């Protein structure tokens, strides 16, 4: 640890990152999706909405909660009539106080439970050195084959239109949630200059791959991506991510969250993640495993069912 350069990201200082799901933009985005927001006395966001006869709530990656804040959350749950609350804890959360407050571990995450962070404060040579040999070969091959990458901060809706079908087709192929065009346009309107579009093309200008990044507090999250059928036959995907890393670094961002890798704790949730997890791992970075999500049941019916399922209610 003594030999770690002062600006280098470590697992320890990753514990203090401010997650994008606690940002004002995310709150506005969820409002577009029909969620309401309430905030704790310490300004941490809880999102809730009706679901038939229930009111479901979620709290995603808030800074570590204290006992006092958990009591405040109980008051908000009573005020807004939550049926249950799903909490996805931060890396620094004391899990013991969650369990003492009545939370029980859940086996159904909402956000990627594990991820890889790329330290953009490293110089370009160090970033390159962190790549696997096959990633370096693939990047150089894509360059030899005429691959080019374009980056746009705050792109136009026309630019999003051009790449949307590739994003949609890829999401369907990988059995991910498919964002509609209005979803992407809403994100663009909310994040604006913190919305970065990266596109790879061949020498004829055909789009082979796309990545969309959203930023918050000097950290960037990979949110959407896709590869065309032609692009899958090439190594352009490696060039696309590598060039995006360099662009995000040049824009002054300090950290890139590749937003998800496979996780043996959640084999169903991450069952189709093996391929792209292997791809991400070739770029080096720091692998992080978040704590399991936790649920607290406020509905008497859900409390009874949770007891019946021996605290393994599938929610």
From TrEMBL:
Ranges of residues in domain BioF2-like acetyltransferase: 135-261
What UniProt keywords are attached to this protein's entry? Acyltransferase, Cell shape, Cell wall biogenesis/degradation, Peptidoglycan synthesis, Transferase
Give an example GO molecular function: aminoacyltransferase activity
The reply to whether Protease figures as a keyword in the UniProt entry is: no
**Biological processes, Gene Ontology terms:** cell wall organization; peptidoglycan biosynthetic process; regulation of cell shape
Provide the family line. Belongs to the FemABX family.
* Entry protein name: BioF2-like acetyltransferase domain-containing protein
State the species of origin: candidate division WWE3 bacterium GW2011_GWC2_44_9
